[in-house]
Design a protein that fits this description.
This protein is an alpha+beta fold. Helix content is 40%, strand content 17%. It has a 7-stranded mixed sheet with strand order 3-4-2-1-16-15-11, covered by helices on one side. This is Endonuclease/exonuclease/phosphatase domain-containing protein.
Amino acid sequence: MKLLSWNVRGLGKPRTVRRLRHMLRDLKPDVIFFIETMVHENKMANIRRSFGYPNGIDVSSVGRSGGLSIGWKNSCNVNLRSFSARHIDVLFNGDSDGCHWRCTGFYGAPEEANRLESWNLLRGLNDCPETPWLIIGDFNEIMYSFEKQGGRVRSERQMERFRSMIEDCSLDDLDYLGTWFTWQKGRMADNNIRERLDRGLANSFWRDLFPDFSLKHLSHTFSDHCPLLLDTNKGLMGPPDQWVFRFEASWLLERTCELEVKRLWGASSGHLLHRLEYLKTGLWKWATALRRNRRHKESMLRKRLQDLAQAFPSDENLHELVDTQLEINLEMDKEELYWEQRARVNWLRNGDRNTTFFHRHASERRRKQRISKLTDADGSEVEETDAMSSIATNYFVDLFSTAGSTNVECILSGINPCITESMNTELDRDFDGEEVLRAIKSMSPLKSAGEDGLGAIFY
């Protein structure tokens, strides 16, 4: 999902609206949040609908200051939680996976005297600490002095109050790409002031839900603030032709897994690689259906367990109570195995059953591995996937190529042969099935799979 947040500094002029409409056509965000619209809510609602966002909440400006608007496409399932002149708080509901997360579009008080009131507003909104929560917008404040260039020095007390609110709400400042500062004024070098006033904040539950998010500071031609473009799915799935299959160890805990593998293999035909592709496609469809039902199943099991715990302790109820507990434990084992595989460590076997720890470890590992941009041979930075792929390919082609002589006899002449004829005969011998099976069995089951996505645990 893409979310565009921007302090537009007024949408009362037709020219500004036209430019913004053109920008939205290029970016195609699913959700928009505009700050300082400087128009009445009825006019803003008409503008928002003309942009192609039929659903939304609009807050009127006070005279020629303020005004908020959030809009979303029909594909988004959104519920309003609360709003004011400083914020709009909504809940996103995941229809397919059952995931819920909060998004608060925020506009911090421009006046320093009212800034503390803004921070207390966010503290008051922090009423569901375990719900994934994102806050994005114009905070009208910086966290540290290095987030400002030019003008008078910012009061340390002001910045400390901002940081204190972030800590009280258990939030993190989101990493971003693009220009460092998000606001500036003054067109001459001696009066130019730049600050990072716009940002995204999120709690750990939101970061765990979207470990591969991308937040970009975009260039712009109007407004003194730059737009923020958040993509929650950045890096999770590549283009359709780059779909990657991975056999999940947790699938082996499903009663139907082995039967499904046998059914798919029996239904496949052709050479080995073709049959493996058929198997992987079928397993992915089977696993997708499992994921849709897992959260609902665990919720129903826990509700059933609560009902049985309060029911009369008959033999039948006690027997069903034990069975329900076992099923819940099995669902938890599946989740733990899922995250252990992603963390690629063996701590679960050593007694550590902290699923949250594995989740964070795996998520952090993915963040570190993500490549957001590369520098080509000319020193230019590129962020497009195809361009980065070309740079990486060319780099390794050049690395493993040589423009010099390939005559290495003079080097080899100084090396004494150590491979005997009998050793060479053994090395040239054809592989047999038992030898291959022994090699597979000796591999760590949860380590990296090959190109086919079928790790050693599958065999």
